[in-house]
Design a protein that fits this description.
The protein is of the alpha+beta class. It contains 7 helices and 13 strands. The strands form 4 sheets. A 5-stranded antiparallel beta sheet has the order 3-4-5-6-11. It has a 4-stranded antiparallel beta sheet with strand order 7-8-9-10, with no helix packed on it. Strand 7 and strand 8 form a beta hairpin. Helix 2 runs parallel beside helix 5 and helix 3 runs antiparallel to helix 5. The mean pLDDT is 86.
């Protein structure tokens, strides 16, 4: 059915300037204004049943968007991050990434498609030629803007087409929840994990360079050795997480040079073990001054005195390096006599 088949009195009233109006070229305006083409009404403008069908399509798209957002959240919670699936012809993919991308894509696409279909089939499509005007907005222009806004709101039929309004609001309300769920990627709550490491009574000290257990005779006076707990290997999935808390510096001092009584009691024949993780921002400490027994963090130059309980003598670090109490086992290997008594690394808000 076309607009030519409808009596003139049944067609919607035209708004704005007349369509098809043209101007003639003259000396002042050498280029003639071709005018606007004759306006043709859409089927939705003349048939309320067609308008209802378009309304249902728009509402369906917004509803699918809501369902896709709920599916995004469910996938994020339920699908393990290490699960893979085969998708032809792409190949093996992360099931979680595939589900998140698919559901979020559908949610956003349906909102966009619903808005476009709504605008193209139900909102007014009358073309209006508006004269250029100065940048400033006089009172009559502001009044016109307000009138145009009210007219646009009226033409959108939000008040009359409540199904579209409600489903659109539902879709726009649920989509931001996808972003809220992504905050979960900041990681699980640490609870007490930051207070504990793999060190425990009986854990041998293993040289990080040779992967061999250390004996006291392997550590020379004035040397610096890095150690990790026995049983921790680089191929382990949690290696980086655990070594970031358990890495040790092993230094052998003359017992008479150790000023701190607890440090001396926790050492073995002058061998002391301190956390390698700087207490400023967690950088690994690796610079050792043999004559002064100072260690220096290369990131921000925090300096610690290993002969005096690894206290801070320079730099931004807030507290001393934690010391690990060590001894030897029945086979003569260096071993831990427990875990660190305080959290390693920089301070955190739960630390007390």
């Amino acid at each position: 059915m076309s607009s030519q088949d409808i009596p003139e009195e049944n067609l919607p009233a035209e708004q704005g300037h007349a369509h098809g109006a043209v101007s003639v070229a003259d000396e002042e305006n050498p280029f003639a204004d071709p005018g606007l083409p004759p306006h043709e009404h859409r089927i939705q403008d003349i048939d309320e049943r067609a308008a209802k069908r378009s309304e249902r399509v728009v509402a369906l798209l917004f509803t699918v968007s809501m369902l896709a957002t709920v599916a995004f959240i469910a996938a994020y919670v339920a699908i393990p991050h290490d699960k893979t699936i085969f998708v032809f012809p792409i190949g093996h993919l992360s099931a979680l990434n595939f589900a998140l991308g698919l559901t979020l894509g559908v949610a956003l696409f349906c909102i966009g498609a619903g808005a476009v279909h709504w605008a193209r089939t139900l909102m007014s499509d009358v073309e209006i030629a508006d004269e250029r005007h100065a940048i400033e907005a006089p009172a009559d222009v502001r009044t016109k803007v307000h009138d145009d806004f009210r007219q646009g709101a009226k033409e959108s039929a939000l008040g009359r087409r409540k199904l579209i309004r409600n489903t659109m609001l539902g879709a726009l309300t649920l989509v931001p929840l996808s972003g809220v769920m992504l905050l979960r990627d900041l990681g699980p709550l640490p609870h007490s994990t930051l207070r504990h490491t793999l060190w425990a009574k009986g854990k041998r000290l293993v040289n990080m360079n040779t992967n061999q257990p250390l004996r006291p005779e392997d550590v020379a006076v004035g040397s610096l050795t890095f150690a990790m707990p026995d049983g921790l290997e680089e191929k382990d999935e949690e290696f980086q997480t655990e070594i970031a808390k358990a890495a040790l510096m092993i230094v052998r001092l003359q017992p008479g040079n150790i000023k701190d009584k607890r440090e001396l009691d926790w050492s073995h024949e002058g061998i002391v073990a301190f956390s390698k993780i700087c207490t400023h921002v967690g950088c690994p400490i690796s610079l050792y001054e043999q004559q002064t027994h100072h260690v220096l963090c290369p990131c921000h130059q925090s300096t610690f005195d290993l002969s005096d309980g690894a206290r801070v003598i320079f730099g931004p670090a807030g507290h001393a390096l934690p010391q690990l109490r060590i001894g030897v086992d029945s086979e003569g290997y260096l071993q831990a006599l427990g875990d660190f008594e305080e959290p390693v690394g920089p301070a955190f808000w739960e630390r007390g």
